[in-house]
Amino acid sequence: MRRSPRARRSSGNARSKRLLAVVGTLAVFGGIVAVTQISSAGDRRTTTRAAAASCVAPSPGATSNIGSSTTQTWQNGRWVRNHWGDGQMSVAECQSVKAGGTATNANTNAAPAGSTIACPDVASKLPQVPAAAKAEVDRNLELLKTQIDEANKRLVAEGRNGGQFIQNAILGPLADKRRATLSRIATAIGRVAQRPQGLEQLATCQLAVGANPNAGNNNGGNNNGGQNGGNNNGGQNGNNGGNNNGNGLGVLAKDCGNSRLQPHDGFQNGNRCVSTAFGEVGAAANNPSLLITQFPNQVQRNQAFQLRVTTRNLVRDRFLAAGQGGYYLESSLLNGQGLVRGHFHTACRMLNSTRQPPNPQDVPAFFVATEDGRGGSQPDDVIIQVPGLPQAGTAQCSVWAGDGSHRIPMMERANQTPAIDVVRIQVN
Fold it and tell me: Where is the composition biased (Gly residues) (predicted)?
Protein backbone atom coordinates (compact mmCIF):
# COMPACT_ATOMS: atom_id res chain seq x y z
CA MET A 1 0.00 0.00 0.00
CA ARG A 2 1.40 3.40 -0.96
CA ARG A 3 1.88 5.59 2.09
CA SER A 4 0.72 9.16 2.22
CA PRO A 5 3.53 11.73 1.96
CA ARG A 6 2.00 13.29 5.06
CA ALA A 7 2.49 10.17 7.16
CA ARG A 8 4.54 10.82 10.25
CA ARG A 9 7.41 8.46 9.55
CA SER A 10 7.95 9.89 6.07
CA SER A 11 8.51 13.44 7.28
CA GLY A 12 11.76 14.33 9.02
CA ASN A 13 10.43 17.80 9.75
CA ALA A 14 7.31 16.30 11.34
CA ARG A 15 9.45 13.97 13.47
CA SER A 16 11.51 16.91 14.67
CA LYS A 17 8.42 18.91 15.55
CA ARG A 18 6.90 16.00 17.40
CA LEU A 19 10.15 15.35 19.29
CA LEU A 20 10.34 18.99 20.37
CA ALA A 21 6.69 18.94 21.42
CA VAL A 22 7.00 15.75 23.46
CA VAL A 23 10.30 16.81 25.06
CA GLY A 24 8.73 20.14 25.97
CA THR A 25 5.70 18.40 27.43
CA LEU A 26 7.84 16.02 29.49
CA ALA A 27 10.03 18.89 30.65
CA VAL A 28 6.99 20.81 31.87
CA PHE A 29 5.64 17.63 33.46
CA GLY A 30 8.95 17.06 35.21
CA GLY A 31 8.95 20.63 36.46
CA ILE A 32 5.47 20.20 37.86
CA VAL A 33 6.51 17.02 39.65
CA ALA A 34 9.56 18.73 41.14
CA VAL A 35 7.58 21.74 42.36
CA THR A 36 4.89 19.48 43.80
CA GLN A 37 7.49 17.48 45.71
CA ILE A 38 8.99 20.63 47.22
CA SER A 39 5.66 22.22 48.11
CA SER A 40 4.50 18.99 49.74
CA ALA A 41 7.06 19.49 52.50
CA GLY A 42 4.53 21.68 54.33
CA ASP A 43 1.08 20.68 55.50
CA ARG A 44 -1.09 21.52 52.50
CA ARG A 45 -4.21 21.65 54.66
CA THR A 46 -3.12 24.98 56.17
CA THR A 47 -2.27 26.54 52.81
CA THR A 48 -4.43 29.43 51.58
CA ARG A 49 -5.97 28.53 48.25
CA ALA A 50 -6.84 30.90 45.45
CA ALA A 51 -10.47 31.37 44.52
CA ALA A 52 -11.89 29.25 41.72
CA ALA A 53 -11.41 30.56 38.21
CA SER A 54 -14.21 32.56 36.63
CA CYS A 55 -16.70 30.84 34.37
CA VAL A 56 -15.57 30.89 30.76
CA ALA A 57 -17.44 30.24 27.56
CA PRO A 58 -17.10 26.70 26.19
CA SER A 59 -14.40 26.14 23.62
CA PRO A 60 -15.22 27.32 20.09
CA GLY A 61 -15.07 23.61 19.32
CA ALA A 62 -17.77 22.75 21.86
CA THR A 63 -20.22 22.07 19.05
CA SER A 64 -19.60 20.77 15.56
CA ASN A 65 -19.88 22.90 12.45
CA ILE A 66 -23.42 21.58 11.99
CA GLY A 67 -24.44 22.69 15.49
CA SER A 68 -24.53 19.26 17.13
CA SER A 69 -22.74 18.32 20.34
CA THR A 70 -22.23 14.74 19.12
CA THR A 71 -21.34 13.67 15.60
CA GLN A 72 -20.70 10.26 14.07
CA THR A 73 -18.52 9.07 11.22
CA TRP A 74 -18.52 5.58 9.72
CA GLN A 75 -14.98 4.16 9.89
CA ASN A 76 -13.85 0.59 9.26
CA GLY A 77 -17.29 -0.91 9.78
CA ARG A 78 -18.35 0.98 12.90
CA TRP A 79 -19.69 4.35 14.00
CA VAL A 80 -17.12 6.62 15.66
CA ARG A 81 -18.75 9.11 18.02
CA ASN A 82 -17.10 12.45 18.74
CA HIS A 83 -18.38 14.39 21.75
CA TRP A 84 -17.55 18.00 20.96
CA GLY A 85 -16.32 20.01 23.92
CA ASP A 86 -16.50 16.93 26.19
CA GLY A 87 -19.90 18.00 27.51
CA GLN A 88 -18.70 21.45 28.59
CA MET A 89 -21.04 23.59 30.63
CA SER A 90 -22.35 26.88 29.33
CA VAL A 91 -21.53 30.05 31.26
CA ALA A 92 -25.04 30.06 32.76
CA GLU A 93 -24.70 26.44 33.94
CA CYS A 94 -21.25 27.15 35.38
CA GLN A 95 -22.51 30.21 37.26
CA SER A 96 -25.44 28.22 38.62
CA VAL A 97 -23.08 25.58 40.01
CA LYS A 98 -20.76 28.17 41.54
CA ALA A 99 -23.78 29.77 43.21
CA GLY A 100 -24.59 26.47 44.88
CA GLY A 101 -27.08 25.15 42.36
CA THR A 102 -26.73 22.39 39.82
CA ALA A 103 -26.01 22.48 36.14
CA THR A 104 -29.24 22.20 34.20
CA ASN A 105 -29.18 20.07 31.14
CA ALA A 106 -29.70 22.39 28.19
CA ASN A 107 -32.11 19.82 26.81
CA THR A 108 -34.73 19.12 29.47
CA ASN A 109 -36.05 16.19 27.44
CA ALA A 110 -32.78 14.28 27.69
CA ALA A 111 -32.96 10.67 28.80
CA PRO A 112 -32.71 10.42 32.61
CA ALA A 113 -29.63 8.75 34.05
CA GLY A 114 -29.94 4.97 34.13
CA SER A 115 -32.46 4.86 31.28
CA THR A 116 -32.50 1.84 29.01
CA ILE A 117 -34.55 0.61 26.07
CA ALA A 118 -37.20 -1.98 26.91
CA CYS A 119 -38.69 -4.12 24.13
CA PRO A 120 -41.46 -6.75 24.21
CA ASP A 121 -40.18 -10.30 24.60
CA VAL A 122 -40.50 -12.21 21.35
CA ALA A 123 -39.44 -15.76 22.19
CA SER A 124 -42.24 -16.22 24.73
CA LYS A 125 -44.84 -15.07 22.18
CA LEU A 126 -43.88 -17.59 19.49
CA PRO A 127 -45.74 -20.85 18.92
CA GLN A 128 -43.77 -24.06 19.07
CA VAL A 129 -41.04 -23.64 16.48
CA PRO A 130 -40.68 -26.57 14.04
CA ALA A 131 -37.23 -28.16 13.95
CA ALA A 132 -36.81 -27.23 10.28
CA ALA A 133 -37.19 -23.52 11.13
CA LYS A 134 -35.40 -23.44 14.48
CA ALA A 135 -31.92 -22.45 13.24
CA GLU A 136 -33.21 -19.46 11.29
CA VAL A 137 -35.54 -18.38 14.09
CA ASP A 138 -32.71 -18.58 16.64
CA ARG A 139 -30.44 -16.47 14.43
CA ASN A 140 -33.08 -13.77 14.18
CA LEU A 141 -33.81 -13.86 17.92
CA GLU A 142 -30.10 -13.22 18.52
CA LEU A 143 -30.26 -10.39 15.99
CA LEU A 144 -33.10 -8.80 17.98
CA LYS A 145 -30.86 -8.81 21.07
CA THR A 146 -28.01 -7.25 19.11
CA GLN A 147 -30.31 -4.52 17.83
CA ILE A 148 -31.37 -3.64 21.39
CA ASP A 149 -27.75 -3.61 22.58
CA GLU A 150 -26.75 -1.27 19.77
CA ALA A 151 -29.69 1.03 20.49
CA ASN A 152 -28.82 1.13 24.20
CA LYS A 153 -25.23 2.08 23.39
CA ARG A 154 -26.46 4.96 21.27
CA LEU A 155 -28.88 5.97 24.03
CA VAL A 156 -25.99 6.22 26.48
CA ALA A 157 -23.90 8.22 24.02
CA GLU A 158 -26.59 10.55 22.67
CA GLY A 159 -29.66 10.33 24.88
CA ARG A 160 -29.00 13.81 26.23
CA ASN A 161 -30.01 15.22 22.83
CA GLY A 162 -33.66 15.00 23.86
CA GLY A 163 -36.86 13.02 23.59
CA GLN A 164 -37.55 13.86 19.95
CA PHE A 165 -34.03 12.80 18.99
CA ILE A 166 -34.42 9.53 20.94
CA GLN A 167 -37.68 8.80 19.17
CA ASN A 168 -36.58 9.76 15.66
CA ALA A 169 -32.97 8.56 15.71
CA ILE A 170 -33.04 5.58 18.11
CA LEU A 171 -36.50 4.16 18.87
CA GLY A 172 -37.94 4.70 15.37
CA PRO A 173 -35.08 3.01 13.46
CA LEU A 174 -35.00 0.23 16.07
CA ALA A 175 -38.70 -0.47 15.49
CA ASP A 176 -38.09 -0.66 11.72
CA LYS A 177 -35.24 -3.14 12.20
CA ARG A 178 -37.30 -5.25 14.59
CA ARG A 179 -40.28 -5.22 12.22
CA ALA A 180 -38.12 -6.62 9.40
CA THR A 181 -36.57 -9.23 11.70
CA LEU A 182 -39.97 -10.29 13.06
CA SER A 183 -41.21 -10.69 9.50
CA ARG A 184 -38.30 -13.03 8.74
CA ILE A 185 -39.15 -15.09 11.83
CA ALA A 186 -42.79 -15.36 10.75
CA THR A 187 -41.75 -16.32 7.21
CA ALA A 188 -39.33 -19.01 8.47
CA ILE A 189 -42.06 -20.63 10.57
CA GLY A 190 -44.67 -20.17 7.81
CA ARG A 191 -42.63 -22.23 5.36
CA VAL A 192 -43.16 -25.41 7.39
CA ALA A 193 -46.14 -24.60 9.63
CA GLN A 194 -48.88 -22.05 10.15
CA ARG A 195 -47.50 -18.53 9.94
CA PRO A 196 -47.75 -16.75 13.32
CA GLN A 197 -49.89 -13.61 13.29
CA GLY A 198 -49.41 -10.30 15.08
CA LEU A 199 -45.64 -10.44 15.60
CA GLU A 200 -45.32 -6.95 14.13
CA GLN A 201 -47.05 -5.63 17.25
CA LEU A 202 -43.87 -6.54 19.17
CA ALA A 203 -41.70 -4.17 17.11
CA THR A 204 -42.18 -0.99 19.15
CA CYS A 205 -39.90 -0.41 22.15
CA GLN A 206 -40.03 2.15 24.94
CA LEU A 207 -37.62 4.09 27.12
CA ALA A 208 -37.46 2.60 30.61
CA VAL A 209 -36.08 4.86 33.35
CA GLY A 210 -33.80 3.33 35.97
CA ALA A 211 -34.21 -0.19 34.62
CA ASN A 212 -30.62 -0.75 33.52
CA PRO A 213 -29.36 -3.77 35.50
CA ASN A 214 -25.76 -2.68 34.90
CA ALA A 215 -26.21 0.89 36.15
CA GLY A 216 -25.01 0.04 39.64
CA ASN A 217 -21.80 -1.46 38.28
CA ASN A 218 -20.86 1.45 36.05
CA ASN A 219 -21.69 4.64 37.88
CA GLY A 220 -20.82 5.34 41.47
CA GLY A 221 -23.53 7.10 43.41
CA ASN A 222 -23.16 10.42 45.17
CA ASN A 223 -22.87 8.95 48.65
CA ASN A 224 -21.19 5.78 49.87
CA GLY A 225 -20.34 4.85 46.31
CA GLY A 226 -18.74 1.46 46.88
CA GLN A 227 -15.66 0.60 44.87
CA ASN A 228 -16.71 2.86 42.03
CA GLY A 229 -16.50 5.84 44.30
CA GLY A 230 -19.25 8.30 45.02
CA ASN A 231 -18.64 11.93 45.77
CA ASN A 232 -18.63 11.44 49.54
CA ASN A 233 -17.27 8.56 51.58
CA GLY A 234 -16.38 6.63 48.46
CA GLY A 235 -15.99 3.01 49.45
CA GLN A 236 -12.27 2.29 49.29
CA ASN A 237 -11.40 5.74 50.64
CA GLY A 238 -11.78 4.59 54.21
CA ASN A 239 -8.69 6.11 55.85
CA ASN A 240 -9.05 9.72 56.87
CA GLY A 241 -5.57 10.80 55.89
CA GLY A 242 -2.69 10.70 58.30
CA ASN A 243 -0.03 8.04 58.05
CA ASN A 244 -2.31 4.99 58.17
CA ASN A 245 -0.98 2.37 55.77
CA GLY A 246 1.35 4.99 54.31
CA ASN A 247 4.31 2.63 53.82
CA GLY A 248 6.28 4.75 56.26
CA LEU A 249 6.39 7.69 53.81
CA GLY A 250 4.59 10.28 55.89
CA VAL A 251 1.50 10.35 53.67
CA LEU A 252 -0.47 13.57 54.23
CA ALA A 253 -3.86 12.30 53.10
CA LYS A 254 -5.51 9.32 51.44
CA ASP A 255 -9.04 10.67 51.16
CA CYS A 256 -11.12 13.81 51.74
CA GLY A 257 -11.96 13.09 55.37
CA ASN A 258 -10.01 16.07 56.73
CA SER A 259 -10.16 18.35 53.69
CA ARG A 260 -11.47 21.88 54.17
CA LEU A 261 -12.79 21.89 50.61
CA GLN A 262 -16.33 20.98 49.69
CA PRO A 263 -16.81 17.62 47.95
CA HIS A 264 -16.49 17.40 44.20
CA ASP A 265 -19.90 16.66 42.67
CA GLY A 266 -19.02 15.42 39.20
CA PHE A 267 -19.18 18.83 37.54
CA GLN A 268 -16.22 20.83 36.25
CA ASN A 269 -15.33 22.98 39.25
CA GLY A 270 -12.02 23.48 41.01
CA ASN A 271 -11.19 23.93 44.69
CA ARG A 272 -13.06 20.70 45.45
CA CYS A 273 -11.96 17.42 46.99
CA VAL A 274 -12.52 14.31 44.86
CA SER A 275 -13.24 11.20 46.93
CA THR A 276 -13.86 8.82 44.02
CA ALA A 277 -11.54 5.83 44.40
CA PHE A 278 -8.76 5.56 41.83
CA GLY A 279 -10.09 2.14 40.86
CA GLU A 280 -8.41 -0.60 38.86
CA VAL A 281 -4.92 -0.46 37.34
CA GLY A 282 -3.81 -3.03 34.78
CA ALA A 283 -0.53 -4.89 34.33
CA ALA A 284 2.24 -2.98 32.55
CA ALA A 285 1.86 -4.90 29.29
CA ASN A 286 -1.86 -4.07 29.28
CA ASN A 287 -1.54 -0.35 30.04
CA PRO A 288 -2.86 1.92 27.27
CA SER A 289 -0.71 3.75 24.75
CA LEU A 290 -1.44 5.84 21.67
CA LEU A 291 0.27 7.75 18.88
CA ILE A 292 -0.65 10.41 16.34
CA THR A 293 0.51 8.56 13.24
CA GLN A 294 -0.49 11.04 10.55
CA PHE A 295 -0.90 14.82 10.58
CA PRO A 296 -0.17 17.81 8.30
CA ASN A 297 2.92 19.96 8.83
CA GLN A 298 1.00 23.10 7.91
CA VAL A 299 -2.51 24.19 6.97
CA GLN A 300 -4.28 27.39 5.99
CA ARG A 301 -6.60 29.18 8.40
CA ASN A 302 -10.03 27.50 8.52
CA GLN A 303 -8.78 24.63 6.34
CA ALA A 304 -10.16 21.27 7.45
CA PHE A 305 -7.60 18.55 8.14
CA GLN A 306 -7.30 15.08 9.66
CA LEU A 307 -5.36 13.51 12.49
CA ARG A 308 -4.87 9.74 12.43
CA VAL A 309 -4.74 8.34 15.96
CA THR A 310 -3.69 4.78 16.77
CA THR A 311 -4.48 3.34 20.20
CA ARG A 312 -3.43 0.13 21.94
CA ASN A 313 -4.90 -1.44 25.11
CA LEU A 314 -7.71 1.13 25.29
CA VAL A 315 -11.28 -0.14 25.01
CA ARG A 316 -13.14 2.93 23.81
CA ASP A 317 -16.56 2.19 25.32
CA ARG A 318 -16.89 4.44 28.40
CA PHE A 319 -17.74 8.15 28.27
CA LEU A 320 -19.48 10.04 31.08
CA ALA A 321 -20.20 13.55 29.80
CA ALA A 322 -18.31 16.04 31.96
CA GLY A 323 -20.95 18.73 31.45
CA GLN A 324 -23.61 16.31 32.68
CA GLY A 325 -21.87 15.64 36.00
CA GLY A 326 -19.66 12.73 34.94
CA TYR A 327 -16.28 14.38 35.63
CA TYR A 328 -14.06 12.41 38.06
CA LEU A 329 -17.21 10.52 39.08
CA GLU A 330 -16.39 6.93 38.13
CA SER A 331 -13.45 4.82 39.25
CA SER A 332 -11.14 3.40 36.60
CA LEU A 333 -12.41 0.05 35.34
CA LEU A 334 -10.76 -2.81 33.42
CA ASN A 335 -12.52 -5.23 31.10
CA GLY A 336 -12.21 -9.01 31.29
CA GLN A 337 -8.83 -8.90 29.54
CA GLY A 338 -7.42 -6.36 31.99
CA LEU A 339 -7.63 -3.41 29.56
CA VAL A 340 -8.76 0.10 30.51
CA ARG A 341 -12.31 1.06 29.55
CA GLY A 342 -12.62 4.67 28.46
CA HIS A 343 -12.11 6.94 25.45
CA PHE A 344 -9.56 9.45 24.17
CA HIS A 345 -9.46 13.22 23.80
CA THR A 346 -8.13 15.42 21.00
CA ALA A 347 -7.43 19.13 21.47
CA CYS A 348 -5.72 21.82 19.38
CA ARG A 349 -4.71 25.13 20.96
CA MET A 350 -2.76 28.07 19.58
CA LEU A 351 0.58 28.81 21.25
CA ASN A 352 1.41 32.45 21.97
CA SER A 353 5.00 31.41 22.66
CA THR A 354 7.15 28.35 22.09
CA ARG A 355 9.44 29.28 24.99
CA GLN A 356 6.91 29.64 27.80
CA PRO A 357 4.09 27.26 28.75
CA PRO A 358 0.59 28.44 27.80
CA ASN A 359 -2.06 29.51 30.28
CA PRO A 360 -3.73 26.32 31.53
CA GLN A 361 -7.20 27.87 31.83
CA ASP A 362 -7.48 28.94 28.18
CA VAL A 363 -9.99 26.98 26.13
CA PRO A 364 -8.66 25.22 23.01
CA ALA A 365 -9.68 26.05 19.47
CA PHE A 366 -10.78 22.43 18.96
CA PHE A 367 -11.72 19.66 21.40
CA VAL A 368 -13.51 16.32 21.07
CA ALA A 369 -13.77 13.15 23.13
CA THR A 370 -13.99 9.99 21.02
CA GLU A 371 -15.57 6.61 21.80
CA ASP A 372 -16.74 3.95 19.38
CA GLY A 373 -17.04 0.68 21.30
CA ARG A 374 -13.86 -0.63 19.69
CA GLY A 375 -10.22 -0.89 20.72
CA GLY A 376 -8.24 -3.74 22.26
CA SER A 377 -4.79 -5.22 22.66
CA GLN A 378 -3.94 -4.72 18.98
CA PRO A 379 -3.34 -1.25 17.49
CA ASP A 380 -6.21 0.22 15.50
CA ASP A 381 -6.83 3.59 13.88
CA VAL A 382 -9.37 6.36 14.32
CA ILE A 383 -9.53 9.42 12.06
CA ILE A 384 -10.25 12.73 13.80
CA GLN A 385 -11.76 15.40 11.54
CA VAL A 386 -10.68 18.92 12.52
CA PRO A 387 -12.93 21.48 10.76
CA GLY A 388 -10.20 24.11 10.70
CA LEU A 389 -8.38 26.50 13.04
CA PRO A 390 -9.32 30.19 12.71
CA GLN A 391 -6.09 31.79 13.95
CA ALA A 392 -2.69 31.90 12.27
CA GLY A 393 0.31 30.72 14.25
CA THR A 394 1.60 27.52 15.83
CA ALA A 395 -1.04 25.02 16.88
CA GLN A 396 -0.32 22.39 19.51
CA CYS A 397 -2.52 19.36 18.86
CA SER A 398 -2.60 16.80 21.65
CA VAL A 399 -4.22 13.40 22.05
CA TRP A 400 -4.51 11.62 25.39
CA ALA A 401 -6.38 8.62 26.75
CA GLY A 402 -9.06 8.94 29.40
CA ASP A 403 -10.91 6.47 31.57
CA GLY A 404 -14.70 6.68 31.85
CA SER A 405 -14.45 9.89 33.90
CA HIS A 406 -11.72 11.59 31.85
CA ARG A 407 -8.60 10.92 33.95
CA ILE A 408 -5.42 9.81 32.20
CA PRO A 409 -5.32 6.04 32.87
CA MET A 410 -2.99 4.82 35.59
CA MET A 411 0.15 2.83 34.77
CA GLU A 412 1.58 -0.08 36.76
CA ARG A 413 5.01 1.56 37.13
CA ALA A 414 6.06 5.15 37.68
CA ASN A 415 8.59 5.03 34.82
CA GLN A 416 6.04 4.22 32.13
CA THR A 417 5.04 6.95 29.68
CA PRO A 418 1.30 7.71 29.89
CA ALA A 419 -0.95 7.45 26.85
CA ILE A 420 -0.38 10.92 25.37
CA ASP A 421 1.06 12.34 22.16
CA VAL A 422 1.59 15.91 20.92
CA VAL A 423 2.37 17.47 17.53
CA ARG A 424 2.73 21.04 16.29
CA ILE A 425 1.10 22.32 13.12
CA GLN A 426 1.78 25.66 11.46
CA VAL A 427 -1.40 27.57 10.60
CA ASN A 428 -0.81 30.15 7.84
Answer: 218-246
